Amino acid sequence: MAARKKRRRVRLERAVIAVLVLCIGAELVYWFRHRGVPGADVSAPEWVEQDILPLNPYSRPGTPLETIDGVVVHYVGNPGTSAAANRSFFANLALTHETYASAHFVVGLEGEVLQCVPLTEIAYCSSQANSHTVSIEVCHADEAGEFSAETMASLLRLTAWLCEEFDLAPADVIRHYDVTGKICPKYYVDHPEAWEDFRSALRAARTQENPS
Question: How far apart are CA 123 and CA 119, in angstroms?
Answer without folding.
Answer: 9
